Amino acid sequence: MKLTVIGGSASCPNPGGACSSFLVSHEGFSVLLDCGPDSISVLRQHTKLRDIGAVVISHLHSDHTLDLVPFRYGLRYIPGGRGPQIPLWLPPGGEDFLDRLGKLFALGAEAEQPFFATEFAVAEFDPDAKKNVGPFSIEFMPTHHFIDCWAMRLEAGGRRLVYLADSGFVQPLVEFAQGADVVICEATLPSEATGMPENSGHLTAAQAGEIAQRAGAGHLLLTHLWDENDVQLVAKEARSTFMGAITIAESGVQLVV
Ligand SMILES: [Zn+2]
Ligand SMILES: [Zn+2]
Asked: What are the tens digits of pLDDT across the range 64-116?
């Protein structure tokens, strides 16, 4: 598998960056995990929008979904870009969410047809079932977040990539990430924020490292980061708990899984 970081910013794009979005490719098939603000601009530096085989969304917060709007416009209006619908897998409740989002932007003649469904084959995944998307098998696990959110475990070609999406620290994350070749884990919080209840839906870098270490992961990709929290310090904190390789999720970074 090849993993390309499209965006690794937290709730708002860092300067020159993008919010959560990861492109995973194997055997010529590409799946996009999340589609946060500014991700389409970065994504277009790496692939044509039409070459995305499927999109899977972890949860419905805007920092993981908002660029579905320009994605839709790109599929519809990029010169020579029309084509078949791209499968868009949303978490439970996602179809209603997308319907409401589309209605906000479907103005004039565009209001006469579904806003997203002309370009995407929109459906909700069953979080309890293993899903086959192109060459990938994907399993889901609920995280500990402010709204329902699902971590994803992708397997293809005998390799395992785990994306823990947004979450506070809970033991099942360790079990879900067990044996991952690469684990993508958020490190939103500065270390002093640990234990504050209003932060319980996110992780520190030291916690991300602890999850990766206890899961026996080979490589930790730290994501959901604020520029204001010095990334070198973030990496150092993760290194205090994780013995494997650590990479910061900056837009354009590529890893072989
Ligand atoms: Zn979130
Ligand atoms: Zn987020």
From this structure: 999 999 999 999 999 987 899 999 999 999 999 999 999 999 999 989 999 99
Instruction: Give the integer Cα–Cα distance in Å for 96 and 138.
Output: 23
What letter represents residue 105's amino acid? F
Please, what is the angle between helix 231-239 and helix 205-215, to 10°? Answer: 40
The amino acid that residue 108 corresponds to is G
Query: Which tokens is 206 given?
Result: 């030291």
CA dist list (Å): 156 to 2, 35, 136, 244, 246 = 11, 22, 5, 22, 22
Between the CA of 126 and the centroid of ligand 2 the distance, in Å, is: 21
Q: Which residues surround ligand 1, an ion (CB under 5 A)?
A: 61, 166
Q: Which residues neighbour 41 within 8 Å (Cβ) at sequence distance 6 or greater?
A: 18
Strands of the sheet with 21-26, listed across from one edge: 120-124, 86-90, 54-56, 29-33, 21-26, 2-7, 254-256
pLDDT band at 225 (very low <50, low <70, confident <90, very high): very high
Ligand 1 centroid–CA 227 distance in Å is 18
Quote the ligand 2 centre to 22 CA distance (angstroms). Answer: 13
Distance 27 CA to ligand 1 centre (A): 31
CA of 138 to the centre of ligand 2 (A): 20
pTM for the whole structure: 0.97
Nearest to 195 by CA among 186, 184, 204: 204
The C-alpha atoms of residue 16 and residue 14 are separated, in whole angstroms, by 6
Could you tell me if residue 196 is left (phi over 0), alpha (psi between -120 and 50 degrees) or otherwise beta? Answer: beta
Q: Is 12 exposed, middle or buried (0-12, 13-18, 19+ CB in 10 A)?
A: middle
31 neighbors 55 (Cβ within 8 angstroms): yes
